[in-house]
Design a protein that fits this description.
The protein is of the alpha+beta class. The protein folds into 2 domains: 51 residues, no CATH class; 47 residues, no CATH class. The protein is 12% helix and 20% strand. The chain is built from 2 helices and 4 strands. The strands form 2 sheets. A two-stranded antiparallel sheet has the order 1-4. A two-stranded antiparallel sheet has the order 2-3. Strand 2 and strand 3 form a beta hairpin. The longest helix is centred in the first third of the chain and has 6 residues.
């Protein structure tokens, strides 16, 4: 499947299994870990900006939803802490990604 986005909550134990499933030229974006204080996070949301909410579902999987200032879905994206692209098997990076 091309151009598919997937969320992974990485830990020291889960990095290698996730890495093994990534293909060359995959774009990786890194954000901070989830904050367990949901009430504080919701209380700190800006009222005039698009916000992406990421959380755990009942099975422990990650979910994501973009909200605009009135709580409706929107297609914006916030910048990550870090970004990278996996090289091809010969070690050369041939992917071009922009934000």
């Amino acid at each position: 499947m091309q151009n598919a986005a997937r969320w992974h909550r990485l830990t020291a134990e889960s990095v290698e299994p996730v890495r093994a499933r990534l293909a060359p030229r995959a774009r990786l974006l890194v954000w901070p870990d989830l904050d367990p204080d949901v009430a504080a996070v919701l209380g700190s949301l800006p009222g005039d900006a698009v916000t992406e909410l990421v959380g755990l579902d009942r099975t422990g999987g990650l979910t994501s939803r973009m909200l605009d200032e009135v709580g409706e879905a929107d297609a914006g994206e916030s910048p990550p802490l870090m970004a990278a692209v996996l090289p091809d098997p010969d070690g050369v990076v041939r992917a071009r990604w922009g934000f």
